[in-house]
Specification:
Blueprint (H helix, E strand, L loop, with lengths): L18 H7 L3 E4 L4 E3 L6 E3 L2 E3 L5 H8 L1 E3 L5 E8 L6 E14 L2 E15 L3 H6 L6 E6 L4 H13 L6 E7 L2 E6 L4 H13 L2 E12 L2 E11 L8 E4 L2 E7 L4 E5 L5 E4 L4 E3 L3 E9 L5 E3 L6 E3 L13 E7 L2 E4 L2
Parallel strand pairs: 2-8, 9-13
Antiparallel strand pairs: 1-5, 2-3, 3-4, 6-7, 7-8, 9-11, 10-11, 12-13, 14-15, 14-18, 15-16, 16-17, 19-20, 19-22, 20-21, 22-23
The structure holds zinc ion (ZN) (2 copies).
Amino acid sequence: MRCIQCGKEVNKPKTVLCSDCTKDKYTCLKGYEEHTLLICPDCGKYKYKKKWNNKSKNAIEESVLHHCSFLVKPLNYNLKINLGIKQGKKQKGEAILKVKSKIENQIVDEEFVLPLKITYAQCDSCAITKTDYFEGILQLRANRDLDKAQDFVLKEVSYRHDVAITKTEKVKNGFDYYFTKQRYIPVIMKKLQERFGASGETHAQLFSRKDGKDIYRVNAIVRLPDFSVGDIVKCNNKILKVVKIGKHATGCDLKTGKSLSFNMKDAEMLDFKVYNVEISKHYPQLEVLHPETYQSVAVANNYVEISKQKKKIKVALIDCKIWALE
Ligand SMILES: [Zn+2]
Ligand SMILES: [Zn+2]
């Protein structure tokens, strides 16, 4: 049939307008809200709609699309950003948006040129990091996993737009972090407890008086445990292989093979040697050649069953007893 508007041939059934005429009548884009995108020149965080977001190479595209309101969801789109020369803290440009959409059975291609405005301004955390302001100090101490804990703290803080570390001091076995917000210190302590099984305590310290009010600073010390998952610890006279650490720690009792929960504060790391020894008997219970006396001895965890084909096994010598570790 022919287009009712211009008379051009239309090859699609149930269609009264050709694609050119459809384009005049229909559009997928209802409106575009002009706005200013803020970008922090120091860290790359960007802000529109009152919220700072972490650095992204798609920040401009994201804010353009956020301010478009579509009548019909486009089938696909292509967005090209052309920025002009930066003038002081401001930069202008345009976004060329090409969209393909389906409107009343017609495929419609459209192109829009949308104005762009960018202002470069420091984000809240960069602005405060430039000062030496702090409300509290977190002292992180660890004999192991210090690097992991350090990465964890920095990452957690980077997710927050209301907290910053204005100074970090490396000390023996740890770091001292100067935080801009004292209310954040119990929050990060709890996270360190959940993630690493750390324990800690806080003290408020009278710092000064201002306008007749006492100003306190919070000092907190957090210690990471000396052991981790897979380590063998002694806890309430039991020997445990650590299965999970954190607020609720669990371990496998080497004597019974059963798992139980334990308090990390009561556990101490065991120092022992691991040997790869020969199996001398599989039945009625597992025996191995003692790594020091070379006598055949039963393992202390006698519930352990090992495949008949196996000739050697890893054992630990703890308190004069041989413990199978497999
Ligand atoms: Zn037409
Ligand atoms: Zn910033």
